[in-house]
Design brief:
disordered N terminus; six-stranded antiparallel barrel; 2 domains; mainly beta; 5% helix; SH3 type barrels; Elongation Factor Tu (Ef-tu), domain 3; 2 helices; six-stranded mixed beta sheet; single chain
Length: 178
């Protein structure tokens, strides 16, 4: 699971946030990128990215070249030739249209598939809706906002019993008083 939906109406046309630009790299217009993908270099599989500065709209741009470096990526974007231009991209979100991402397998979901779903215990108590997810290293965690915030481990078959995208809900074996 990875990626975060922050736009759009039609599922196939949504742009999923897959990382952000953190800082300039060198003097020739390269930037440091922090990917949100499961595989560190996964964003490099896409020649065209959508970029969105804080408060702005998505803008399509090309990736000239890039590589994995340290805990992130370093990338040269089209039209970005110097350090000042690269600095202008700091804090910019990187998105990929959902339609360009690999299809998920059976019982596999992008985080954006789960965001907004109602979370209901096996006993029928509604906890709230999935606000977002985060990784812990051992498993992902659903952050559920309702009367209070719940942190529910995303462990299929153990805690998460069913994900029903059509019904907009996740059934969990979870004690809300835990």
């Amino acid at each position: 699971m990875s990626g975060e939906d922050r736009s759009g109406d039609a599922a196939a046309d949504r742009i999923l946030v897959m990382g952000h630009i953190a800082a300039p790299f060198g003097i020739r217009g390269w930037v440091h990128v922090m990917p949100y993908t499961e595989q560190q270099g996964g964003l490099l599989n896409y020649a065209r990215w959508y970029l969105r500065r804080p408060g702005g709209d998505w803008q399509e741009t090309g990736v000239v070249q890039g590589r994995v470096q340290g805990k992130g990526l370093v990338v040269q974007l089209e039209g970005c030739d110097d350090r000042d231009g690269a600095a202008g991209w700091n804090g910019t979100e990187i998105g990929i249209p959902r339609s360009r991402l690999p299809a998920t397998g059976s019982n596999e979901y992008y985080w954006s598939d789960l965001t907004g779903l109602r979370v209901i215990t096996l006993s029928g108590r509604e906890l709230g809706r999935v606000d977002h997810l985060f990784e812990t290293g051992s498993n992902d965690v659903l952050v559920v906002q309702g009367e209070q915030e719940y942190l529910v481990p995303y462990i299929p078959g153990q805690v998460v019993h069913t994900v029903d995208l059509a019904a907009g809900q996740i059934r969990v074996d979870w004690d809300p008083d835990f």
